[in-house]
Design goal:
Blueprint lengths: L4 E4 L10 H9 L7 H15 L2 H6 L2 H15 L6 H16 L10 H10 L3 E6 L5 H7 L8 E4 H4 L6 H11 L6 E5 L2 H10 L3 E5 L12 E2 L2 H9 L4
Parallel strand pairs: 1-2, 1-4, 2-3, 4-5, 5-6
Length: 230
């Protein structure tokens, strides 16, 4: 069955933390780690977070700040009162503005390519109530038919109800929709529970044994759709 609608996670797929802001917040407290080192550590930290027991025992908010502790650890930065203070500052910024404000260079062209192929695009993301305004601020809102923020809807992935809402809001057919996300236990299993095909964005090739299609970039997603792989 051909693809007509693509659901996309936001964080880790379309947008990433502003690593320069994170590095600067740490530097103000005497903790020196470059934005590049934080970005390099992110996939490994995400893989450590992407554990079935951890996902079951936490929600998106608590996972988010555990995620940053794991990034610091993977980057060789000891956790301390200084790192805690920096993360509190970043958390306050995130609640107001959304820290996931880095848009990789390949994102907009890939979205434009998907739109050019006549596909409907919907953001289906665990977020904090700022996502719709955030997509506008980043100039990405016009790329999507619909943007769904779990905080606005009162249900978050991996709960399949969020995907059911997305299907309804997108006027999409289950059989012709795929979901692209970066966390196996949140995105892949959540979409699968809703009867959707799922694709894992695995930029660092950390999931070689995953029982689902994997891509390394959104450009690869476009190529795989063109090739009829989904």
């Amino acid at each position: 069955m051909s693809v007509e609608t693509v659901f996309l996670d936001a964080g880790g797929v379309l947008v990433f933390p502003n690593w320069t802001r994170v590095s600067d917040a740490l530097a103000k407290r005497g903790v020196r780690v470059s934005a590049a080192a934080l970005a390099t550590a992110e996939p490994r930290a995400k893989k450590r977070l992407d554990d079935g027991d951890t996902i079951t025992a936490t929600n998106d908010t608590s996972r988010g700040w555990l995620f940053f502790d794991l990034i610091l650890t993977e980057a060789g930065v000891p956790l301390s009162e200084s790192t805690r203070s920096a993360l509190e500052e970043l958390n306050a910024y995130h609640r107001e503005r959304n820290l996931w404000e880095l848009v990789p260079d390949d994102v907009r062209p890939a979205l434009d390519a998907l739109r050019a192929r006549g596909l409907r695009l919907t953001v289906v993301s665990n977020a904090n109530g700022t996502l719709c305004a955030h997509m506008e601020r980043l100039g990405l809102a016009s790329c999507f038919d619909c943007v769904l923020d779990s905080s606005d809807l009162g249900v978050e992935k991996p709960d399949p109800r969020l995907f059911e809402i997305a299907l309804e809001r997108s006027h999409a057919s289950r059989d012709t929709t795929i979901h692209v996300g970066d966390l196996y236990h949140v995105d892949v299993l959540g979409a699968r529970a809703a009867g959707l095909r799922s694709v894992l964005l695995d930029t660092a090739n950390l999931y070689p044994d995953a029982d689902c299609p994997r891509i390394r970039s959104l450009n690869e997603l476009v190529a795989e759709i063109d090739a009829g792989q989904f």
